[in-house]
User: Which sequence fits this backbone?
């Protein structure tokens, strides 16, 4: 649903699958599960933004728990990625990353929401920002979660 938050409503399952690095059946199944959960509106062909925001802000850290793991290469995420990185000071060695083989940064790895998320984020800056904010909700302290929630409100509840 994060990918569909900024997608053209004329998307196809094939185009969505290609952009996310998923199979056609994985993509179709994910959209159908989101529809059943009330996160996807088939009439607008987009996410139910209010429900998605509510799920992410209030449940992401419980439904998709994550803890920083071993040091590895990847894309900066959570508080180390835009837009939070400019608002917080932190030790660069503590900056978490989404694992990506040829990633530009090194830090504690945070397991992505989906194994394909880092590559999809690398190709789509808007998706990357949303995923980084969700990682801040999943792993951040209270201040980071509050800031991430406010940014998600601006991006999703337009």
Assistant:
């Amino acid at each position: 649903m994060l990918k569909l938050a900024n997608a053209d409503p004329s998307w196809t399952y094939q185009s969505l699958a290609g952009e996310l690095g998923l199979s056609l059946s994985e993509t179709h199944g994910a959209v159908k599960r989101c529809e059943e959960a009330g996160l996807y509106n088939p009439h607008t062909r987009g996410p139910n933004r209010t429900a998605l925001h509510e799920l992410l802000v209030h449940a992401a850290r419980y439904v998709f728990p994550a803890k920083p793991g071993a040091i590895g290469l990847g894309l900066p995420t959570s508080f180390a990625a835009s837009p939070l990185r400019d608002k917080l000071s932190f030790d660069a060695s503590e900056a978490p990353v989404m694992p990506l083989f040829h990633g530009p940064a090194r830090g504690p790895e945070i397991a992505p929401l989906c194994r394909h998320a880092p590559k999809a984020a690398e190709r789509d800056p808007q998706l990357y920002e949303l995923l980084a904010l969700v990682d801040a909700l999943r792993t951040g302290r209270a201040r980071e979660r509050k800031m991430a929630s406010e940014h998600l409100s601006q991006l999703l509840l337009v």
